[in-house]
Amino acid sequence: MDRQKGSRRVMEGVKAAHDGMKSSPRKKFKKPEAKPFDVEVMADGVRSGSRLHLGKAITLLESSNPADKTNGQELLNQLLPHTGNSIRLGITGVPGAGKSTFIETFGEMLTREGHRVAVLAIDPSSSITGGSILGDKTRMEQLAKNPNAFIRPSPTAGTLGGVHKKTRETMLLCEAAGYDVILIETVGVGQSETLVRGMVDMFLLLVLTGAGDELQGMKKGILELADAIIVHKADQHNLELAQKTVREYKQILHFMQRATEGWKTQALPVSSFEKTGVQETWAMIREFEELIKSSGYWQKRRQNQTKDWFRSMITDELLGRFYGDPSRSQQVKMLEREVLQEKMTVSQAIADLFE
Q1: How large a percentage of the chain has pLDDT more than 70?
Q2: Using CA atoms, how far apart are residues 281 and 91, in angstroms rounded to an integer?
Q3: Quick check: is 213 in a domain?
Q4: d(CA 194, CA 97)
Q5: How many C-beta atoms lie closer than 10 Å to residue 115's C-beta?
Q6: Beta bridge partners of 188
Q7: How many angstroms separate the CA atoms of 132 and 148, rounded?
Q8: Which stretches does the entry tag as region Disordered (predicted)?
Q9: Is residue 29 in some structural domain?
């Protein structure tokens, strides 16, 4: 009997507690307010060389959020006086040429000599998912750990030629953060080379031994962009063939237009595995810098690149606004149907669209 009474009291206590919980007002979770963005703090962090602040600043510039865009441009304007103090190098090459291996070995050598190196790797985005591979940090594992190096894969996001439209601005942020050597690695898919050539001081092309076979699949236009040809993987067992390839390229280059006014395109063998030719590559780059700066072409090229950038951004903005107008978008679809049904010519459709 006592046991039954005790059980009943326990059950009544549980019920009372449950009723009390039901009757008491539930506290609403209050989402913490986002801290207002402080441009000054971010700019100071970037200028101090903080990789954390630099990464956040680049993410801000890549954002499509309107508020982030405004803050990003304000940040860039503050940092602009601290830019332009690096040598900008574009690096491309045929598949399998070992671009990432070369960049890691080259970057490690530069940091040992006291330089700060930023690597902006143009990362191909999937045309299906929009996602990017972002594999450069795994391919350049040692350089990624180096405190004097910064690696940033830049997803192409479907932009023309596979070059992310913010790559130029990212380069400026890296310069403001004190990186004096900027390396831009392209995906090596044709048109991206032309666009990267338009944002760097010097353009390096990595090739493998056997120039005759390789030239069959290489566009002459890419060769004409190069200020230097690196015959890569010139390891000891392959050195004789690599030197032969260097001679073949020198003969070819003799008949081609120079990529940079006042500079004869060089060709040299390099082995990243055995670390030979890497120091010679840097000495050649320094020679190029000294010669082109003394001729005045260095500054002229950078000004022309900025002018081209300005005009390409105008085109991007016009296209964005044009297709961003819903009524205009509908008109395009309607005229497109008319053209496909052969009810009007393409020229007439364009005339109607811009009338």
Answers
A1: 77
A2: 13
A3: yes
A4: 19
A5: 17
A6: none
A7: 25
A8: 1-33
A9: no
Rounded-to-10 torsion of CA 211, 217, 221, 224: -10
The pTM assigned to this predicted structure is: 0.81
By the 8 A CB rule, do 75 and 91 touch?
Answer: no
Please give the helix or strand (H or E) that residue 152 lies within, else none.
Answer: strand 149-155
The whole-angstrom separation of Cα 86 and Cα 108 is 17
Cα separation, 148 vs 114, in Å, equals 8
Considering the domain architecture, whether residues 176 and 320 belong to the same structural domain is answered as no
Strand partners, 110: none
Residue 220 token pair: 């002459």
Instruction: Count the domains in the chain.
Output: 3
CB 176 within 8 A of CB 160: no
Q: How far apart are CA 282 and CA 180, in angstroms?
A: 13
Token pair for 26: 């539930």
Query: Residue 21: inside a domain, yes or no?
Result: no
Task: For residues 126 and 253, give the distance between their C-alpha atoms in angstroms, rounded to a whole number.
Answer: 36
Average pLDDT, whole number, for the chain?
83
Residue 319 burial by CB count (10 A; 0-12/13-18/19+): exposed, middle or buried? exposed
